[in-house]
Specification:
The complex is a heterodimer of chains A (about 375) and B (about 270). With about 375 residues, chain A is mainly beta. Helix content of chain A is about 10%, strand content about 40%. Chain A has five helices and 26 strands. Chain B is about 10% helix and about 40% strand. Chain B is globular, with a radius of gyration of 18 Å. In chain B, about 50% of the residues are buried. The chains are: A mainly beta (about 375), B mainly beta (about 270).
Chain lengths: ~375, ~270
């Protein structure tokens, strides 16, 4: 079973989730593409390869977040309409050989083929997925994403603490010259990344994004790296950061002021800031060969009472049910004018909200942004066939 | 003790004696100058590892220059060994750990004079992975009596397990793990190189038994294991499913040979039903 509550709670609380937390179909269906575009901090449109939802028809950097309930039997559908072979390796999920996504020991998904990857999500935690074909190149081109396996009761693991929201931070990097000319990227050992990202964003792209975290209940930072660099996160005092999990397994609880994350590693860090906390987690990217500090990214976290619309937000009705598959409602909104966009800004509806709400039965699965006249923009998800 | 006296007296079993021998190797399309700890005075491709020692190990310098040796069982102490001389390391009471023995000289480090001496964890099959990375031009510079330019960029282009790169790792019985479901094994891993590495295990998590850089991680269950430069790590693999699964560096420049993928630090776990 897929899990919505916690991750979507993070969506509502924070725009930092540029990680494409678009709705996940049931059964989920990914595709691979080699014709995507990713916008860098300076506005440069960079070619990428990657994954996207079949229903959306476009790929993203990183790929869509996959979420499953612990214990779920998963059949991940995958189509490859791109001109080259790809796979999906479910990194850390300890799947069997046939579903491991390594061409030499399982199989290629060649151009035009589709398949499913079948596995059981045995342990809650933070995982990754990526292409395992010419991995050195396909990863830096953008073929990766994060997997979250969560528990219906919101606890990190059996007997573990409950969290109010999950905040996925996927660290990665790329070398612009390689993306511009992947055929000319040889030799691979000479690769030197020059863009350093969190959830696909860097520098000023992260500057306006803030995670609002409760001082009364823990927020789970889901940290994972697909970078070619070592990433060291520095947690400021007052954030009360504690390490709880690594690589999908419980570890002894440890107070943190910094944490090294090597390529492929994952950690779950709980934060519970003091009242009035307003600071940043600093992520330092360091070159793996010579130890050179390549970049710093700043991930802002504020205690939730500092949210600019905190007081008003308590009275602002939200969409329900959310996710929705047929009609979605907002209290005290009948007759009001609303505009709705997809997550990439395509206007899909404008008009009055009827007494039965908005009929989304024919809408594609995905994340939508809605603005009821006179109110802040809100978000909801359309997901058909949720179990 | 002079090399001649060691050879003549035959005081030590061959397995407890290491010779520091210069030579050359072919690796992933490159040729490199090399120095190895060898089981005999003859040069060998991979550094010889030692285990279950009872009293001492003698290290004989068969190289043409002096070396300064260090090992992790006695942090802070080094032993100078001139050409033709030897040094005897006392291993009495060695803790049950995996240790690193290496030459701290620039020549020794760059040419790969570094190996593993382990003690304990001998109740199960025990595999040994010495990780390293290589810049062929640097090895020839040092072999020719030169020194490294400290301002030059370090760009290694060969990455090895037991001084072999993939696919030759699969021909090495200490790199290629072969076991069966329910039959646990130990794997000792030492990063003998200058850059940090991180290994990802497909198919399984492993239990951390030793981590010299992260002692707080003993007892953790991991699928992706950092091994910092110089670090000694021991893990236990309890295979719970059959199959053939890669283990590889996840700093993905290190899974190449002279720039070509796949290569470098890749080996496999072969688990019979």
């Amino acid at each position: 079973m897929m899990k919505w509550k916690n991750v979507l709670g993070a969506v509502a609380a924070s725009a930092v989730l540029a990680l494409p937390v678009v709705a996940q179909q049931a059964p989920p269906s990914l595709f691979s593409g080699m014709d995507g575009i990713h916008f860098l901090e300076d506005g440069t449109a960079l070619p990428i390869w990657g994954y996207g939802w079949v229903a959306d028809g476009f790929i993203t950097l990183p790929g869509p977040l996959l979420t499953y309930d612990e214990g779920a039997s998963v059949s991940l559908a995958f189509e490859n309409p791109s001109p080259e072979s790809h796979t999906i390796h479910l990194h850390g999920l300890d799947v069997d050989q046939a579903n491991d996504g390594v061409p030499a020991t399982s199989f290629f998904v060649t151009s035009g083929q589709s398949t499913t990857y079948d596995f059981t999500a045995t342990h809650s935690g933070t995982y990754l997925y990526h292409c395992h074909v010419t991995t050195t190149l396909h990863l830096t081109m953008g073929m990766y994403g994060m997997v979250l396996v969560t528990r219906p009761d919101g606890t990190l693991f059996e007997g573990g603490p409950a969290v109010v929201q999950d905040v996925p931070w996927l660290f990665s990097d790329l070398e612009v010259a390689t993306n511009l000319n992947p055929v000319g990227s040889f030799p691979f050992h000479d690769m030197r990344p020059d863009v350093f990202m969190v959830n696909g964003r860097a520098g000023s792209q992260l500057a306006e994004e803030v995670v609002y975290a409760s001082s009364e209940e823990p927020t789970a930072l889901r940290l994972a790296s697909m970078a070619y660099s070592k990433v060291t996160c520095h947690f400021p005092e007052g954030l009360n950061a504690e390490l709880w999990m690594s690589d999908g397994r419980e570890v002894p609880v440890e107070a943190l002021d910094s944490l090294e994350i090597y390529p492929g590693e994952r950690f779950t860090v709980l934060v519970q800031p003091v009242e009035g906390f307003d600071g940043s987690v600093t992520a330092v990217f360091e070159h793996m060969v010579d130890g050179y500090d390549e970049a710093e990214e700043f991930l802002q976290i504020r205690e939730e009472s500092l949210h600019p619309s905190h007081v008003a937000r308590l009275d602002v009705p939200s969409w329900y049910p959310n996710p929705a598959s047929h009609n979605i409602h907002m209290t005290e909104s009948t007759g009001q004018f609303v505009r709705v966009w997809t997550s990439v800004g395509e206007l899909v509806f404008e008009g009055q909200i009827s007494a039965s709400g908005l009929d989304v039965a024919s809408w594609n699965n995905g994340l939508y942004l809605a603005q009821v006249e006179g109110r802040d923009v809100t978000r909801f998800v359309v997901a058909h066939g949720i179990r | 003790m002079a090399l001649a006296s060691v050879l003549a007296a035959g005081l030590y079993a061959q397995s407890d004696t290491l010779w520091m021998v210069p030579g050359g190797v072919g690796l992933g399309g490159d040729t490199l100058a090399a120095l190895r700890f060898c089981a005999t005075p003859q040069f060998q491709m991979s550094n010889e590892t030692l285990n279950d020692l009872t009293s001492s190990v003698v290290v004989v310098n068969a190289d043409s220059v002096a070396h300064e040796l260090a090992w992790t069982a006695q942090e802070g102490t080094t032993w100078s060994v001139t050409p033709g001389a030897s040094v005897e390391l006392d291993v009495t009471g060695l803790a049950d750990e995996t240790h690193r023995l290496w030459s701290v000289t620039e020549r020794g480090q760059t040419l790969g004079l570094s190996t593993m001496i382990r003690s304990g964890w001998d109740d199960l099959p025990h595999y040994e992975w010495n990780l390293n990375e290589w810049d062929p031009a640097e090895t020839w510079e040092l072999a020719g009596g030169g020194s490294l330019d400290p301002t030059a960029a370090y760009v290694p282009r060969q990455f090895t397990i037991n001084d072999l790169n993939y696919p030759n790792t699969l021909a090495d019985s200490s790199s290629y793990v072969q076991t069966s479901v329910g039959a646990a094994v130990y794997i000792s891993i030492i990063n003998q190189g200058r850059m940090d590495q991180v290994l990802h295990f497909h198919g399984y998590h492993v239990d951390m038994l030793q981590s010299s850089a992260h002692p707080n991680r003993v007892g953790w269950s991991k699928d992706t294991v950092p091994v910092k430069a110089g670090e000694c790590v021991v893990v236990r693999l309890d295979p719970n499913q059959p199959g053939e699964y890669p283990v590889h560096a996840h700093n993905l420049v290190a899974v190449t040979n002279a720039g070509f993928y796949p290569g470098g630090m890749i080996t496999y776990l072969n688990v019979a039903p």
